From TrEMBL:
This is Recombination-associated protein RdgC. Keywords: Cytoplasm, DNA recombination. GO terms for molecular function: double-stranded DNA binding. It is found in: Cytoplasm, Nucleoid. It comes from Hafnia alvei. One of its GO terms (cellular component) is bacterial nucleoid. The keyword Kinase does not apply. The keyword Cytoplasm applies. GO terms for biological process: DNA recombination; regulation of DNA recombination.
Length: 301
């Protein structure tokens, strides 16, 4: 059983205080139970395995954010709104205006909120102190932004920026084209692997995926698609010990360590969690710094 998971990740450059100072700040923004009329609530939480608010690991530390969100299906809302609107229009013998329907919809949502199922999500963030990298273990940009917003709220002022690379100058599309036409490795230090996803916006979003031997067998088709305006949305890369999909937004998907971690004490779960977290922070740091160098990322001024 793997404990400290990083399956997906969004990375920020961030200047955070040391673990002790941060813990003091975080105590001001702890998670508390969601109320009957709230749609969502987020706050810092204790790591359920280590029992710590801030867990020190090799090279940095980790924090945990809990988010509770009411699940209110849009189909349920729409059906109830339609029922109420139909009843009112039947009694009044006139059509309701859009603003009146909006008021009814809001009232329905508020009422459903009181009895809605609550979905709980735990978000883990890993901080590399030396390189000031904040790695939020999620593939969702809105969820990663919640973590950053909580840190800003807790600390008062935190300098953060997302890491983006211009697709025109240095990005995935340009490098894949170079690889297919010249055979040169597109990412120094990384091995091109077995998955490509192309996308193009039009009247409808078009997505094409190539995997395994298709990439070699259909090179000319892929080049033709790039010439026709498709861009590379995802590509799988390998380096020593880790495999992952990199997106055009510099997000990481389907992260997988290529070997298991050995432990001195399998039964000490807090120890195992810290060990796994430290190893995964090391690999993610290596990957991010390597790609930043290869893709010639320049920090915001």
């Amino acid at each position: 059983m793997k404990l400290a998971q990083i399956k997906n990740a969004i990375v920020f450059k961030a200047t955070l205080p040391n673990a002790d100072l941060l813990e003091g700040h975080m105590k001001e923004c702890m998670f508390s139970d969601i109320s009957e009329t709230e749609f969502a609530r987020s706050g810092f939480a204790v790591n359920t395995i280590t029992g710590e608010l801030v867990t020190p690991i090799t090279g940095g530390y980790t924090i945990t954010v809990r988010r509770d969100e009411k699940i209110i299906p849009s189909s349920v809302v729409n059906k109830e709104v339609e029922t109420r609107v139909a009843a009112i229009e039947l009694n009044s013998e006139c059509k309701l205006k859009r603003k009146d329907k909006a008021i009814i919809k809001n009232n329905v949502i508020v009422e459903l909120c009181k009895t809605a199922f609550v979905k709980t999500t735990y978000l883990f963030a890993y901080y590399d102190e030396a390189n000031k990298l904040l790695i939020v273990a999620t593939g969702s940009k809105p969820l990663s932004d919640i973590v950053v917003s909580l840190l800003v709220k807790a600390c008062g002022s935190v300098k953060t920026e997302t890491i983006n690379v211009s697709d025109v100058k240095h990005g995935l599309t340009t490098r894949l084209r170079t690889y297919l036409t010249s055979g040169l490795e597109p990412f120094e230090g990384f091995r091109f692997s077995d998955f490509i996803q192309l996308g193009r916006l039009g009247d409808q979003k078009e997505i094409i995926k190539y995997s395994g031997s298709e990439i070699d067998d259909m090179q000319q088709e892929i080049i033709d698609k790039l010439d026709a305006g498709f861009i590379v949305e995802k590509v799988r890369l390998d380096m020593d010990g880790i495999s992952f999909q990199l997106t055009e937004k510099f997000h990481f998907k389907a992260i997988n360590l290529l070997s298991d971690i050995n432990y001195q004490n399998e039964d000490d779960l807090p120890y195992r969690w810290r060990q796994e977290a430290g190893v995964k922070l090391f690999f993610m740091r290596t990957v991010v710094l390597g790609l930043v160098s290869v893709l010639e990322y320049k920090a915001e001024k």
